[in-house]
Design goal:
The structure is a homodimer. In chain A, about 55% of the residues are buried. Chain A has a single domain, classed as Acyl-CoA thioesterase, double hotdog domain (Porin, Beta Barrel). Helix content of chain A is about 10%, strand content about 40%. At the A-B interface, strand 5, strand 7, strand 8, strand 9 and strand 13 of A face strand 5, strand 7, strand 8, strand 9 and strand 13 of B. Strand 9 of chain A pairs antiparallel with strand 15 of chain B. Chains A, B: This is Thioesterase family protein. Chains A, B: Pfam families: 4HBT_3, 4HBT_3C.
Chain lengths: ~260, ~260
């Protein structure tokens, strides 16, 4: 079973072209986890970028890839002093599967917080959270949770015993099981590893993401990441999901929003 | 002075290529408003899309364009039954200026809300809000506000008289002065017409956006749009700004997030 570094290995074969291997075990059912695919793409993007850190990464999921060989094509659109902008496409069988736009920059390790809004609702400490079972209620195997150690706040776990909380909310702590410490490449995986917030409405099942944008706000300290998910609206078959991710020092390290499809039940 | 329809006219000159004219009056100082540029790009995108509505639009601002002629190049990456994905580039002098990814779909006019979270803090009614002056305190002319009728909630206007509220927050109502009713093309302009939330910290001045993602959640009813802006963190020269936009019926019609640069004062 490939660890994070192996599963996100990129091999530069031509200018701007990277060969990758989509690992079958970083998945939900048969489909690779979206956060894992974004991490894979970012490995290629930062290799081409004059700035080391993805500041904003917008990914549109065009068509689900299969596990196995694929390519990432990266185009540097502009390199500036403060930021650079890159476009990246994950291609398999000549079909674009994930299309991403990334603005990179150089984040400092020790910048002061000039202003921060009020923190969200607290999450129960790691040792009071529940290590998450790796299969969905419908039997779908969530392979990515063999790699991501996920501990969910009991208050957002009611759906598992048939008592959904009745709101779009999910909270917990994550770290990589192989010991890889968090960095801006790992963060997309952190925002996309928890069960979809619609589980809080009792809507259990796969919820395919069509778009995910992740902002890196600080370089994370080693240790657990704490993830707060919320959503605002379920309408016309679509729901939004916002994540805030904090590191062990309490620094806001990532924000994200995704739009996903909820299956008509 | 070009109205919205004129200022966002796109002319198809080759397959996937549109000639446009960036109007000098939809601007902040010398630079075109980001929401206006996104609206212009979306006009070309929906012309190429099998689905009529931009569901998620992620725009990365690569380099500021000048007013005058430019081109939008649109590539349809995939057309599916429920969604399509398109890539679009606003190019001027062979330099990409704005790069966008758009997932389109067909939103229904009368879908029920399955679930909605608690609404944000109320905004003062239109007639208690302040019609917004069109120049910034530093003298910059905000031309886009000759086109957008903006009424700001007095509670978020303290910065104008030297008493900033001390938080990333801005609230108001907007409509197009030329009588154009809101639709999914107008929505990016609505989320980007208010003063930057950092004004609430007394940080007055231009705050260039590097990335803006807008979700269309419902088709807006005719009339005023009510916009709530909030931000979570100012750190290392960057701040986030989230918008929720409601129509006159109280429906959540758009959500957005942008990452922007705050000038070191």
């Amino acid at each position: 079973m490939a660890d994070f570094n192996e599963a996100t290995t990129v091999k530069n074969v031509e200018p701007g072209i990277y060969e990758v291997e989509i690992d079958s075990s970083w998945s939900v059912g048969d489909v690779a986890n979206g956060g894992y695919l974004v991490a894979l793409i970012l490995k290629a993007v930062v290799s081409e970028s004059p700035h080391p850190h993805p500041l904003s990464t917008s990914s549109h999921f065009v068509a689900p890839p299969s596990s196995g060989p694929a390519r990432v094509r990266v185009d540097l659109l502009r390199a500036g002093r403060t930021t650079a902008t890159l476009r990246a496409t994950l291609v398999q069988d000549d079909i674009p599967r994930v299309e991403a736009l990334v603005t990179t920059s150089t984040l400092s390790h020790d910048a002061d917080v000039e202003w921060a809004g009020p923190p969200p609702e607290p999450v129960a400490p790691v040792d009071e959270c529940i290590p998450t079972v790796v299969d969905l209620p419908d039997g779908t195997h969530v392979g990515v949770l063999d790699h991501v150690d996920l501990r969910l706040d009991p208050q957002t776990l009611g759906w598992f015993s048939g008592r959904p909380a009745g709101q779009l909310s999910m909270r917990g702590h994550v770290r990589l099981a192989d010991g890889t410490e968090p960095d801006p490449i790992v963060l997309p995986l952190a925002v996309d590893s928890l069960p979809p917030t619609v589980f809080g409405l009792g809507r259990l099942g796969w919820a395919p993401t069509v778009e995910l944008t992740v902002l890196t706000r600080s370089l994370p300290a080693p240790g657990w990441l704490t993830v707060h998910l919320r959503g605002r609206l379920v309408r016309d078959g679509w729901f939004d999901e916002e994540a805030e991710v904090y590191d062990v020092t309490g620094a806001l390290v990532a924000q994200s929003r995704q739009l996903a499809r909820v299956r008509v039940s």
